[in-house]
Amino acid sequence: MYEKTGYPSEAAVVHAERIRGVIGELQGDVDAKIKRVLSAVFADELIKTEFANTNIRYTAMVGEVAQALLRCFNLPDERLGLMTIGDIDLPEFAQEVIDEIVAAAQLYERKFMKERGTGYDLAAKGMLSARKGVIDLFDKHYNFSASSGGRGAELIRKFADNMCLTAGGMCALDSVASTAIRLGLKDGKFNRFVSPHNSFSTWHSIVDERSAGGKTSCVHKLETKQENMLHLAADDIEDFYNRCDLEDEEQAFQTTWCITPVGNPSGTKMRPEQLKSVCEKIVELEPQAIIMLDCTYVRTLKPEKAQVLMRGVLENN
What 8-state DSSP symbol labels residue 248? Predict the structure, then answer.
């Protein structure tokens, strides 16, 4: 029934064999059969119970069980692509960029050690030449230099001046959260973190921790709609401000938005106009809001698609 390759896992096979008995005979065309399989797996209470409060592991198990069932029913399992936790099979063009970044990092380390005796930047932002090097690498993917209505060179300079190099994504997210709270307090405002409820819980966990139970900030997780590919739309932004500002008219807020143009783990991506209109609506309703775009998975898109997705935001800065 299943290939003995170690994948899917034994636990997934056990669930699949159990759920197969519940499904019975499949009816309809291929699409209808696949939908029936997926619906049965997502509706399974035992899997939900076993992986309660562990969203990443739950999603991974659902994917494994569904793929095992597709094979069992001789349905095309390539319709369902699985992503392992803590790892990702990068497309070839993205792996080439990663290799280039690693080589550049090693080069800069040797250069700074020779020139200064240390690679540490006292401003904790990373050496300026290294920051410029990073932007040059990203430029090949996002095409910053051709964006911004002919002001690409100015945009690249701004990025290099203002960016920070960190030891990893978690450090960067924690720094953003801590800085947002400090900026709000400095201006006499209470910070609120807002993000769509469509991604892994890493960011949510960090802002929950930094919010100290609501003492330093508050956290809002917005539900998203299937019609918008589980991403925010401009209407969601307007609804949030209308609802929340009415609830607390006396409190001055600073809002920090975290938006994922390409979802993690859904893999769905925002439409270019959708991303642009969401950012524009935020700026319209709160000009001083902080907008953080988590572009980690934008890097898995082909460069030309990433450029189309991000162009509207880059040209409106």
Answer: -
Angle, helices 10-23/55-72, rounded to nearest 10 degrees: 60
Helix axes 10-23, 30-42, angle to 10 degrees: 110
Task: Indicate the pLDDT class of residue 87, thresholds 50, 70 and 90.
Answer: very low
Instruction: Output the CA–CA distances (angstroms, integers) from residue 28 to 34, 35, 94, in the order listed.
Output: 10, 10, 39
Contact 259, 292 (CB under 8 A): yes
pTM of the full structure? 0.69
Can you list the positions of beta strands (E) in the chain? 190-196, 217-222, 253-259, 290-293
Alpha-carbon distance 288 to 285, whole Å? 9
> By three-state DSSP, how is residue 317 classified?
coil
Which regions of the chain carry the CATH code 3.40.640.10?
Answer: 170-304
Instruction: Give the whole-angstrom CA distance, residue 167 versus residue 79.
Output: 36
- What is the per-residue pLDDT across 12-21, written as a single tens digit (0 to 9) for each? 899 999 999 9
Domain 170-304 has CATH 3.40.640.10: yes
Q: What is the token pair recorded at 305?
A: 């698609």
Write out the DSSP string of 177-191: HHHHHHHHHHTT-EE
Instruction: Report how far residue 23's alpha carbon sits from residue 179's, in angstroms, rounded to the nearest whole number.
Output: 51
Give yes or no for a contact between 196 and 264, defined as CB atoms under 8 angstroms apart: no
Q: How far apart are CA 266 and CA 112, in angstroms?
A: 40
